[in-house]
Write a structure and sequence with these properties.
Distance between the termini: 40 Å
Number of helices: 7
Shape: elongated
Largest sheet: 5 strands, antiparallel
Number of strands: 13
Order of helices and strands: HEEHEEEHHHEEEHHEEEEE
Structural class: alpha+beta
Radius of gyration: 37 Å
Helix content: 10-25%
Length: 359
């Protein structure tokens, strides 16, 4: 019985001495004056620079061997994806699972310390009139950075049907021009080959001086255009390869339960899956989780903060690891308490960690 009264007396003395009491917002029942504050959680931004190569089969690919004399041509439409660069950044935002209520004790005659909370509600300092100069700001993302993708439209030069020659007798009889003759696919392919030969002959005559005309500085321009036109006709058989570079952004907000697991991030156009693998085993093994009774009961003159977890992160594309990086992930860490009684406290606004304790 005496022990019971001693516990009651001790609790009463602590309560009377309390300038304020901090409680998890889930258990805050009081309607008295107070303020809410958040601890931050981290957001991982993954930006990929992706080279996309599209292969388009030419409309006359089936005649490439016989008419063009080559086996080097595209035989099917396909897309290849190659990740050329990876950038990983870490930002922060409020953690809805780490919201706390500070209830001021109206009976206390002691001075209540000043609480500095940013515009989003994340605690930055206790006991300071203003944040000291040089304090880093929170890293935030806009979340409106959409996927940027270059156009990959492709077209081939068209071989038109050859109009039939006019018949003078038909014209006199009022028949007019005849409709174009419908050529077969192979006939059009042969027209393309004839055109390639004509372009090559014209280009040779131009550079060899057969035409005995001085084109001056324009000869290079003319040759370049002829070669470009020749390549357009050749692509009817060999096909076209179009490359584009795209920027793709993904945002990942890891959950506490994923501290040592895999997270699905997204899927590229080529069908390969992007995942993140987290490993905190070597950095948080010696930090035990806070007892739930402490978290759920009022804590006089104390503030909850967080010890973030140093996390090894692997990014995989399909079965391949494409990058690794060590990041600080706040929500993988553990909650702790720090006394503000006669102390001035500074917090890291990106992690919720205590950075400075001073008198």
């Amino acid at each position: 019985m005496k022990k019971f009264f001693l516990i009651i007396a001790l609790f009463a003395s602590l309560t009377l001495d309390a300038q304020y009491v901090t409680t998890s917002a889930k258990n805050a029942q009081s309607q008295n004056d107070g303020i809410f504050y958040y601890l931050p959680r981290n957001v991982i931004k993954l930006e990929l620079t992706v080279e996309e190569t599209n292969y388009y089969i030419g409309p006359y690919a089936e005649f490439a061997s016989n008419l063009l004399g080559t086996t080097d041509y595209i035989k099917e439409n396909k897309t290849e994806i190659n990740v050329k660069g990876i950038d990983i950044q870490v930002g922060s935002e409020i953690d809805p699972n780490a919201l706390f209520f500070i209830e001021f004790d109206e009976k206390s005659k002691e001075f209540v310390p000043n609480f500095i909370i940013d515009q989003d509600g994340i605690i930055c300092a206790v006991g300071y009139d203003n944040l000291p100069a040089g304090i880093s700001l929170r890293n935030t993302f806009d979340y409106n950075e959409m996927e940027y993708k270059e156009s990959t439209a492709v077209s081939f030069i068209e071989i038109l049907d050859i109009p039939e020659e006019e018949d003078d007798d038909d014209e006199e009889e009022g028949g007019g021009k005849k409709a174009p003759k419908r050529m077969t696919k192979e006939e059009k392919a042969k027209v393309a080959i004839e055109t390639i030969d004509k372009i090559r002959t014209a280009c040779f005559d131009l550079v060899s001086g057969v035409q005995e005309v001085n084109f001056g500085n324009t000869i290079t321009y003319m040759v370049d255009n002829m070669e470009a036109l020749e390549n357009e006709y050749i692509s009817l058989f060999k096909g076209k390869t179009i490359k584009s570079t795209n920027k793709v952004c993904y945002y990942v907000i890891p959950d506490k339960s994923q501290a040592n697991g895999n997270v699905w991030v997204g899927k590229l156009d080529g069908g390969e899956t992007i995942k993140m693998q987290f490993d905190t085993k070597n950095t948080s093994a010696n930090i035990n989780a806070m007892d739930s009774d402490i978290l759920n009961s009022g804590q006089p003159n104390k503030i909850f903060y967080r010890i973030p977890a140093l996390t090894n992160v692997k990014v995989t594309l399909g079965n391949d690891v494409i990058t690794t990086k060590t990041l600080t992930v706040s929500q993988f860490g553990e909650l702790r308490l720090v006394s503000t009684k006669n102390n001035k406290i500074l917090f890291n606004p990106n992690t919720g960690q205590v950075t400075t304790v001073s008198k």
